[in-house]
Amino acid sequence: MMNNIKNNRSIWPVLLMWLCFLVPAHADTIEKGVDVQEIVFSHIQDAYTWHITEWNGKEIAIPLPVLVKSEERGWDLFLSHHLHHGQVHHDYYLASEGEHAGKVVEKNSRGEEVRPIDLSLTKNVCGLFLSCGILSFVVLRTARWYKKHPNQVPGGFTGVMETIISYVQDGVIRESIGKEGYRPFSSYLLTAFFFILINNLIGIIPVFPGGANITGNIAITAVLAGCTFIAVNLFATKEYWKEIFWPKAPIYLKLPLPIMPFVEFFGVFTKPFALMIRLFANIMAGHSIILALTCLIFITASMGFAVNAGMTVVSVLFCAFMNCLELFVACLQAYIFTLLSANYIGMARIKE
Q1: Looking at the predicted structure, is the pLDDT value of residue 336 above 90?
Q2: 74: which strand partners?
Q3: pTM of the predicted model as reported, rounded to 2 decimal places
Q4: How far is the first Cα of the chain from the last one, in angstroms, to the nearest whole number?
């Protein structure tokens, strides 16, 4: 495995970007001490600025627009750099602790810290716009080629897209849902596959415009799982619902206590919940592990040159391995989400 990593030259540019991104940003922690938890969560959580790096003690970041509505003062729009370093702007500030830590809050007339209605353009929202733009470009470029060359075999980028689409549609969607009823769901499932794949790949890139932890945000995965939940239950057959409320089981498991109907009905909600948690946990865990391994360089900085040099080599090698694994997981999780969604839809479409 280590020989494969050493021979895989494509991973080193990504790894070097990680180190160039993190080392200047946290060089001051060598003297002050390292808070690994703070470093990790500051990079994987959403933010009102798009942090790039720090240089000579100055933060290089892109301020994003903050759009909030106070219960008492109405709408307000300003750039997020007005809230840096504990500043208060128009009575708004970033909470430093509590359930609203890192979010824009205000003090109401009773002196209570409350959250306004927040429609700000955060880093994850910008990342969503970026990924949706890339997805639209990829799809429209492929469709445009086929429109111009209807009777030709594609090659290059279009050929790669055709291979991926054909495999997902024929090997996953059609096999799971069935040859007769898969077409109405094919567009959604292919879109979900490429949307998750693109966001996973963007999250691996540590420098602007990458680095947004989109699929590592449980709100995003919840929406994706909710779309599958709607597709499964809205277009389910009556046989599916009959199996939910009156499953094929011994009568004593259904009457007088509806044990099996309760279990089956509970399963309607556990399936999308599993989709949500699986994608969220795998992506967030991968980012957290890479950041924690990188922090070894700072943790051992005060232990002497020999220890620090040795742990730096260990950190680099493990980060290279984790980047290879993250690239694999980025593709695998997009495939698994599409496969399970197709399976759930297929089970709901089965007729007696």
Answers
A1: yes
A2: 70
A3: 0.83
A4: 49
